[in-house]
Amino acid sequence: MRFDGTKSYIATEDLTVAVNAAINLQRPLLVKGEPGTGKTILAHEIAAALKLPLLTWHIKSTTKAQHGLYEYDAVARLRDGQLGDAKVKDIANYIRPGKLWQAFTSAPQKSVLLIDEIDKADIEFPNDLLLELDRMEFFVYETGQTIKAESRPIVLITSNNEKELPDAFLRRCFFHYIRFPDRETMERIIQVHFPDVKKNLVRDALNAFFELREVPGLKKRPTTSELLDWIKLLMSDDISAEALRAKDVKTVLPPLHGALVKNEQDVHLLERLAFLSRREGR
Ligand SMILES: Nc1ncnc2c1ncn2[C@@H]1O[C@H](COP(=O)(O)OP(=O)(O)OP(=O)(O)O)[C@@H](O)[C@H]1O
Ligand SMILES: [Mg+2]
């Protein structure tokens, strides 16, 4: 089982090496990187490339490790009891399998399990999953059964670095940091999303984009997903490369900059820089 990227996803050499290492080690792959650098979509692409089902567990601040194993629906059982439903006799009817359970029991097929944005949960969350991810099994107290993965799922965990992850957890993962794409990689990413885009437009949009990322003091630098949105808008508004080139980021904000710059401090900063450089240019 080997991952080599897909037609719709540009995987750099170091990323494919990391994915395959995690598959071979049968350990979770922990992926970090700036927002919008393709962490989440990577799990979709791995599942598509290896033709395996994907299970996504999206983590929120209120998510507990137990939710991934199973939940016991006591309310439904109480209600059924009051209605005299025969189902209540078997507690198994009220056990709702979580994503880990589903991933462990997807046999005969292996599955890909995405634990997305693990850093959103509280600090205990990763520690609470250590054993389950290590041994790929857990015990259901209500029914006395043990759920064990027959074939270990490929586990991908993403983090935006909002919280540090505990060492014991890190020890059990293979780690990869998605570096911000260089210009050539970015061109290829644009190409797979917009095969018909004009070469000049890509060149000038990338000039403006990388120049914008270099502006010192920017609170939130635009990333891949913002660039893709922007190019889509430029294409649909039929803004020509010439128009882009005339509007140098240094002297005037780029057209449709709302797709790239997402807060008012950054807009003010760019306006001020543009004003200063126009004044100097006079
Ligand atoms: N290497 C790539 N090849 C193709 N498309 C990419 C690549 N990297 C990013 N993209 C595109 O960028 C967009 C954002 O990707 P994704 O949602 O996976 O980012 P993310 O890293 O999970 O971001 P966040 O941290 O905000 O959740 C997607 O539309 C995806 O198609
Ligand atoms: Mg994501």
The parts where pLDDT drops under 50 for at least 5 residues are none
Cα shape? elongated
Integer-rounded radius of gyration? 24 Å
N-to-C series of helices and strands: HEHEHEHEHEHHEEEHEHHHHH
Structural class: alpha/beta
How much beta, percentage-wise? 5-15%
Write a structural description.
The chain is α/β, with parallel strands linked by helices and 282 residues long. The protein is built from 13 helices and 9 strands. The chain has helices at 13-25, 39-50, 65-69, 74-82, 99-104, 124-128, 130-135, 167-171, 183-193, 199-214, 224-236, 241-246, 264-281; strands at 29-33, 54-58, 70-72, 95-97, 112-116, 137-140, 145-148, 154-159, 174-178. The strands form 3 sheets. Strands 2-5-8-1-9 form a 5-stranded parallel sheet. The chain has a two-stranded antiparallel sheet with strand order 3-4. Strand 6 and strand 7 form a beta hairpin. Helix 9 (183-193) packs across helix 10. The longest helix is centred in the C-terminal third of the chain and has 18 residues, at 264-281. The chain is elongated. The termini are far apart. The model has no long low-confidence stretch (mean pLDDT 92). The structure holds adenosine-5'-triphosphate and magnesium ion (MG).
